[in-house]
Design brief:
29% helix, alpha/beta, binds manganese (II) ion, Aminopeptidase, 466 residues, 2 domains, 9-stranded mixed sheet, 7-stranded antiparallel sheet, Aminopeptidase i, Domain 2
Length: 466
């Protein structure tokens, strides 16, 4: 072997230079990462909405021995509990051997993703075509949501108070839906519009029918036919849409991407690509020292609003209940706690290199990404993790051989974004963002690397057991 030059030696010893996981993982580790991702892909397909993700989390948690948390009951070290918030968020806890007054370990991710929600009064007919009016949810590039197959998911509460669960367009043979777009032949004016305005929000109408009821006279015959079909199949009347939460999501299934199958393409990696590893860490971490608390929350994509988002007190109340159980103060538990805010970051995309600052960007396959702060402009709207806490997380990941990298969300002043980290930090909890790099974030088909997904699981798992 040739002797290393001084520069080579110094570069190795002194510089920060995270490497592609493909160069660092053994064949066995790579195989385990791919197997983990096979289960992740199944989760992606059954849990496309926050409600479905909660239902699937409950199913998997109960298999792993979790039981619904009963306020007032005393749980012993090693016991596993969960609490569901309105079917749209879930907290899971594995009770630690140390009292909760010494703090808990949080992993907090979100399970809502950008999509097209139905308006309260959605159904209309125009020129003998029946359509649904939508109100987009979260940050979308509207042109991406036209002419792709969509599936209808959600719940409809009927006049008698009963609840109907809807999922159409996922099974083989189901009908699917879509938003139409202009043909290029007649699109000369549209083509000159900026991307942001070329498809106005009120054009995101979903095609749902075209056959009229068989009558010569009268108006809205296609709409009436659509209502008749919905009534026959589900017992619905038009007013029932007023008490519904219907989400149209991409109908595509999760698939391997690339000749090497190193990546996964799917709808809603943001943030199920952190939620699933965090959930799996909760399900597999037995007998932690500190109580391990996994939160899969709702409404992150619209600012963590409402009673199922993290601005609500629901997580804090759970901590108070844990504290009461052990006769300590909830605020003391929070002040001693540590959190990995588990959310994605934008992976460097060579096709759009100019929006990234390469020295501080994250890359697919280089492991889980630690994001010290998010926000926009001069760090506004973010929690900036302390040097001390960064050091603590860094030492943990290095000591457990978890592949990780640092990443900032693009060039300063190019854009910005946020996560739940600032709401957790506001509770006096040490917090930093840690998650998976994503290509084409918020698109109907997002891309992640299998190595990074597996490293996210390893990070949460080691954090819980540390
Ligand atoms: Mn996110
Ligand atoms: Mn997002």
């Amino acid at each position: 072997m040739k002797e290393k030059t001084l520069a080579e030696k110094l570069r190795e010893e002194l510089t920060y230079n995270p490497k592609n996981g493909g160069l660092q993982l053994t064949q066995d580790q790579l195989r385990r990462a791919y197997e983990f991702c096979d289960d992740y892909k199944e989760f992606l397909d059954v849990a496309k909405t926050e409600r479905e993700a909660v239902a699937e989390a409950v199913r998997l948690a109960e298999i792993a021995g979790f039981v619904p948390f009963e306020k007032g009951r005393v749980y012993q070290a090693g016991e596993k509990v969960y609490r569901v918030n309105r079917g749209k968020a879930i907290i899971l806890a594995v009770i630690g051997s140390k009292p909760v007054s010494e703090g808990v370990r949080f992993a907090i991710s979100h399970i809502d993703s950008p999509r097209l929600d139905l308006k309260p009064n959605p159904l209309y007919e125009s020129d003998e075509i029946a359509m649904f009016k939508t109100h987009y949810y979260g940050g979308i590039k509207k042109y991406q949501w036209t002419t792709i197959p969509l599936a209808m998911h959600g719940v409809i509460c009927l006049a008698d108070g009963s609840k109907l669960e809807v999922r159409i367009g996922e099974e083989e043979g189901d009908p699917q839906f879509c938003v139409t777009d202009l043909l290029p032949h007649l699109g000369r004016k549209q083509e000159k519009e900026p991307l942001a305005t070329a498809i106005p929000a009120e054009n995101l109408n979903i095609l749902v029918g075209s056959l009229p009821i068989n009558e010569e006279k009268g108006s809205d015959l296609v709409k009436l036919n659509t209502l008749r079909l919905l009534n026959e199949k589900y017992g619905l009347v038009e007013a029932d849409f007023l008490s519904a939460e219907i989400e149209f999501v991409p109908a595509a299934k999760a698939r391997d991407v690339g000749f090497d199958r190193s990546m996964i393409g799917a709808y809603g990696h943001d943030d199920r690509v952190c939620a699933y590893p965090a959930l799996m860490a909760a399900l597999t971490c037995n007998n932690p020292v500190h109580t391990a608390v996994t939160v899969l929350t709702d409404k992150e994509e619209i600012g963590s609003e409402g009673n199922t988002g993290l601005k609500s007190a629901y997580m804090e109340y759970f901590i108070h209940d844990l504290a009461d159980m052990q006769g300590v103060k909830g605020r003391d538990v929070l002040s001693a706690s540590q959190c990995l805010s588990a959310d994605v970051n934008a992976a460097f995309d060579p096709t759009y290199a100019d929006v990234y600052e390469k020295r501080n960007a994250c890359f697919i396959n280089k492991g889980v990404c630690i994001t010290k702060y998010t926000g926009a402009g001069g760090k506004s709207g973010t929690s900036d993790a302390s040097a001390e806490y960064m050091s603590r997380v860094r030492r943990l990941l290095d000591s457990k051989n978890v592949l990780w990298q640092i990443g900032e969300l693009g060039k300063v002043d190019v854009g910005g974004g946020g996560t739940v980290a600032k709401f957790v930090a506001a509770l006096d909890v040490d917090t930093v963002d840690l998650g998976v790099p994503v290509l084409s974030m918020h698109a109907p088909w997002e891309i992640v690397s299998k190595i990074d997904v597996y490293m996210a699981y390893r990070a949460f798992y080691e954090f819980f057991l540390d």
